[in-house]
Amino acid sequence: MIRLYTDNLNISYGERLIVKNLRVDIPDKKITTIIGPNGCGKSTLLKAITRIIPPQSGTIVLDGKNIAKEKTKVLARKIAILPQTPESVNGLTAGELVSYGRFPYQKGFGRLTSKDIEVIDWALDVTGTSEFKHRSVDALSGGQRQRVWIAMALAQETEIIFLDEPTTYLDLAHQLEVLELLQRLNKEENRTIIMVLHDLNQAARFADYIVALKDGEVVKAGHCEEVINQHVLKKVFHIDAEIGRDPRTNKPMCITYNLIKGEQKNEKDFDSISTVAHAVH
């Protein structure tokens, strides 16, 4: 089932066209990951779908309606986003930060109701951050902070959650902790999860559906086996990848890779190739 999709989407920064005539379908109640080299439009796409930035042209449709015409609070009850580098006000406790997720439901002076408090406590509990409720967010570790931000997104009670590189700056254990939490939310809460990931093997392990972008266009979208393969990775990242199987999940994984030599068209292409080295570790 497709509740959310883009149609002929064009997004520009100044005179530079970043996303071009893009059609993307987001499967409902699934985990979708977006992959691609730096500068290909991944974060830009998320910002447009969540109405942080306006597209130059085209439409973004949710439940049969153009989101550009939706009221902000109405949309905020359907879509939550965790940006790439979220910043909180100094001195906020975890509980106070999570309470911001209740904004779409507040009226008048915005005082928290008993329902709001119940949802906040649930969001803290499900993300394993209840013990940090009265602790300053600044005093938490990177993984703990990331889980508190996810709790804030959950407190919005949306069925769709966007996350832009949720594992950035986290060590391997905390990366796995965050991704397993998102997978659990998808399986147990039926949340639709859309996230940008740089690590191809994490994308393959946790995604039901993968969208591979390059230069603002979809190279391939589909199940893991359709995207994490030698042909697609060559087109997207300009690498010669050796693909095997994850012994624990049986999903495809990139075992090793080489840069493809002699096909760089210009210095800009070479820079894009260089940036992808971290994506397959």
Automatic annotation (TrEMBL):
PROSITE patterns: ABC_TRANSPORTER_1, ABC_TRANSPORTER_2. SUPFAM superfamilies: P-loop containing nucleoside triphosphate hydrolases. Residues 4-240 form the ABC transporter domain. GO terms for cellular component: plasma membrane. It is found in: Cell membrane. GO terms for biological process: iron ion transport. The keyword Ion transport applies. CDD domains: ABC_Iron-Siderophores_B12_Hemin. It comes from the Bacteria. SMART domains: AAA. Pfam families: ABC_tran (PF00005). One of its GO terms (molecular function) is ATP hydrolysis activity. PANTHER family: IRON(3+)-HYDROXAMATE IMPORT ATP-BINDING PROTEIN FHUC. This is ABC transporter ATP-binding protein. It comes from Siminovitchia terrae. The lineage of its organism: Bacteria, Bacillati, Bacillota, Bacilli, Bacillales.
